[in-house]
Task: structure prediction
Amino acid sequence: MKKIHLIANWKTNPSSLKQAHKLMDGYRLEGISPRLNLVICPPTIFLSGLTSKFQGEFFWGAQDCFWEKGGAYTGEISPLMLRLLGVRYVIVGHSERREHLGETDQMINKKVKALLREKLVPILCLGGGKEAKSPKANIRQIVRFQFERAFEEITQKDLAENEFLITYEPPWALSTVSHNRPASSKFAAEAAFYILNLLSAKYKRDFAGKIPILYGGSVNSSNILTFLKKTNLSGFLVGGASLNPKEFSQMIKLVS
Ligand code: PGA
Result:
């Protein structure tokens, strides 16, 4: 049975460790199907407080990382440090970082390479950023450009030795922007197919087909099954809905 990846991206929420504990307490994490790969990405500051208390059939993720192992880089956290915190997955190139933090494709490429070196799993976000914010933007051109730069100097061998996830994330469909209006399943499916073709052109086709392609943008319990039924997507990056324990537990149940 095909694996489905469900990634909770808490972004800069909640505002205290106590509330983070409450959120975790509210998730129904028992009886998760082996089909489901659940990853929870809290703010880094809460990771040690959470990983020491909550363990189970899910993985911890981070929302970003730096590309060097250590050194004079004020404010940054290296993949190695994240691994020590119990992290396995790391979101890279999220639309909000591209837009608000000026994260460039070159930086994203360095981060992806650093994660692969450190045997952490990148969740590479494509399709985001300021220039992609209008639904009229040339999505293919933007995705292709970001794809080519993110995968620069990354060989099939590098990927074969690691797990790797890609998320297509149109910024205009993020819940905070669209007020919970996702892209249509047809649109998300076409974008995922386009990414698959880019992968197939760069790497061997049968190998490319094994890299899971996810969608992110206003996914919740009322639309997740439509996405699953009407697309070939391998999972979802969930922001807003993951901050509501009832809602997110329902999503876990629906995909299990
Ligand atoms: P959203 O966010 O589910 O709130 O739209 C998705 C994401 O940005 O990861």
